[in-house]
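Example: Pyridoxal 5'-phosphate synthase subunit PdxT.
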Amino acid sequence: MVKIGVLALQGAVREHAKMLESEGTTEAIIVKKAEQLDELDGLVLPGGESTTMRRLIDLYGFREPLQKFADSGKPIFGTCAGLILMARQIVGEEEGHLALMDMTVERNAFGRQKESFETELDMKGVAEDLLAVFIRAPLISEVGASVEVLGTHRDEIVAARQDQFLACSFHPELTDDHRFHHYFVEMVKNTKAALV
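Written out as structure tokens, the predicted fold is:
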């Protein structure tokens, strides 16, 4: 079994946990305290409102422990606002939040709440028909040379991977399509085996 945490500051925490546990080889941990990070093999940063999440990360003392977790080589998966937290640059802001991935992101690039939509995406290494839900979604406007683009929608980058970091603009946890979570669980298993 691998232990994967879901940062429980905001967003669809239970939905992510349910998806992870459906794998049958994963124990999902709802993370409310920074010290819980020590027992994890991987971590999900769910959607929500990234500025609020950043404030809560600072308020509850998560900033340094999250950085330490990332530096340890353990995988992190950010969805929607989680993607924004992971980006080195955010359009219109001086600096990124956690700045884990060499990419620039643009908030609410696909419109407001009422312009939410579902679509199928061709996701490299995951599926040719992955169901994706976009809600006030950001997009990845630029990536560095070490970032692998996994998926696009209308020529805009919506999913990427850099080493042990995975990020997407959409909400895979709000569908019945488990394949993106399966991809992340396999990343966690492979990394755990390599780190032993």
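The chain is about 25% helix and 35% strand.
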